[in-house]
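Sample entry (158 residues):
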Amino acid sequence: MSENHPLYGKCLIVGIDPDTDKSGVATYYREGRRLEIDSLSFFELYEYLMFAKEHIKTVRIEAGYLNSKSNFHGAKNVHTAAKTGSSVGACNMVAKMIVDLCKYIEVPYKEIKPFRKIWKKGKISHDELQNLLKKMGIAPIIGKTTQDKRDSALIAIL
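Predicted structure, serialized as tokens:
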């Protein structure tokens, strides 16, 4: 890779919030204290990791299957509980596929247990993320963010 390449000499930490359609992916550039976030399909993620693999320090993957036990007894009804359980299971499968991908392309990775919901409304808001980045001395994110993108940012920086 030439010295003119945008990743030359970088040490990247990639945070991934797996999802069945597009996963939230955050790349933290430690040297420049800069964070980039995106939503990528599984194959777009593969291409990105292959492109950046020489500069990745670690890929951090949210792994819901590390939770000791989950149930959805608080759901409105049995149908809602079943749908939620199915969605969680599908996301866990994607997380395992991303782990397998990292092993296959030989990129260092770490499975991360989902964070506790400590934010005002459970999930982190755009403004809360911006304030956290400011406190950490990381450049703010430009543009809108989705929950998957914000979660991947937390996985990358915490």
